[in-house]
From TrEMBL:
Keywords: NAD. This is NAD-dependent epimerase/dehydratase family protein. InterPro entries: Epimerase_deHydtase, NAD(P)-bd_dom_sf. Residues 9-255 form the NAD-dependent epimerase/dehydratase domain. Gene3D superfamilies: NAD(P)-binding Rossmann-like Domain. Pfam families: Epimerase. Coiled coil: none annotated.
Length: 353
């Protein structure tokens, strides 16, 4: 499905993992696209700058609250900005009057949220509220925002369906994502803002976050360090390859929930592979692809973790004919090819070469 031309699009978190791939998918589409990221140090900022360089932005031209033009596509720009910067965000919306906002900015990480709660409140709650206010004030025609499978908590009701109860998050990160959904629904209802929430399920692939399990496993395997496997390996995740996720986002850009006097223009979707895989299966595939056995260090379940994630994607199948096309084996093959090329680069910024 083709994206609609001549739309002004804001992609927040554009130097992050998913945001990076979304930006690359929007080259030469006719959209005027601005990527936004605060470029914080939750993980090595050089990886974020490397993603931006791969997108066509020169690091030396990036400065806070200054628009940086793209050297590959004149319709793409980038701005370093914090969503908690109310004045800067309002000025950006006032100047560009975005038709579509894709919010992929958030403080990520479940375990990190236990020790650093304020970072999650600031970014995921306050920053998101500021974005909602700008969407209201400047009459955004479609807001798409990232939620998470973590909102389902330890639910034994599988596969997870968007209609089931999500009132019992088991991590602060999950609680902030649930709060995003509630706030977004309220704004959609009160101000008739067409809004789409996307509950992502363990997204993986090239250019991924170094704190994600599959990336940590690969790094530990090649460096000969023990691979920490929680709950003694008895965990399942609905691993979803990045290309399938981005295809879903791009296809939903122009399919906003309908506005009407009698209903709220709001819809939630699960974005998953609908095929849970055991963590030990993931490790076995990585061992084969990397040509080296893992040293397993079995650990108990960690606070905030859940046993299983499993997406019911029927709504997406009906809406956009969503069919995840990438098996775990094929997706990890793509990741390992990228990992082998780039992991040992002296500087992450050299990854784009």
């Amino acid at each position: 499905m083709d994206v609609v031309e001549d739309k002004r699009v804001l992609v927040t978190g554009s130097a992050g993992f998913i945001g990076h791939h979304v930006m690359q998918s929007l080259y030469h589409t006719g959209h005027t696209v601005i990527g936004l990221d605060v470029l914080n140090s939750f993980y090595d900022p050089e990886l974020k700058y490397a993603r931006l360089q791969a997108q066509g932005f020169e690091k030396q031209k990036i400065a806070y609250n200054q628009l940086c033009l793209n050297c590959k596509d004149p319709d793409l720009s980038f701005i370093q900005l914090d969503l908690t910067d109310v004045k800067g965000l309002q000025m950006l919306f006032h100047e560009h009057q975005f038709d579509i906002v894709v919010n992929l900015a958030a403080q990520a990480g479940i375990r990190y949220s236990i020790d650093n709660p304020q970072a999650y409140i600031d970014s995921n709650i306050l920053g998101f509220m500021n974005l909602l206010e700008c969407c209201r004030r400047y009459k955004t025609k479609h807001l798409l925002f990232a939620s998470s499978s973590s909102v389902y908590g330890n639910s034994a009701e599988v596969p997870f369906n968007t209609a089931q109860c999500t009132d019992y998050p088991v991590s602060l990160y999950a609680a902030t994502k649930k709060a995003n959904e509630i706030l977004a629904y309220s704004y959609a209802h009160l101000y008739n803002i067409p809004t789409t929430g996307l509950r992502f399920f363990t997204v993986y692939g090239p250019w991924g976050r170094p704190d994600m399990a599959y990336y940590c496993f690969a790094k530990s395997i090649v460096e000969g360090f023990p691979v920490k496997v929680f709950n003694n390996g008895d965990m399942q995740r609905d691993f979803t390859y990045i290309d399938d996720v981005v295809s879903c986002i791009v296809n939903l850009l122009h399919l906003s929930p309908e506005t009407a006097q009698v209903s709220t223009p709001f819809h939630l979707y699960n974005v998953g592979n609908s095929k849970p895989e055991n963590l030990l299966t993931l490790i076995s595939i990585l061992e084969r692809l990397l040509g080296k056995k893992a040293i397993l260090q079995l650990e108990p379940m960690q606070p905030g973790d859940v046993h299983t994630t499993y997406a019911d994607v029927q709504d997406l199948e009906e809406k956009i004919n969503y069919r995840p096309a990438t098996s775990l084996e094929n997706g990890l093959t793509q990741f390992v090819q990228w990992f082998n090329l780039h992991h040992y680069a002296p500087k992450v910024a050299a990854l784009v070469k």
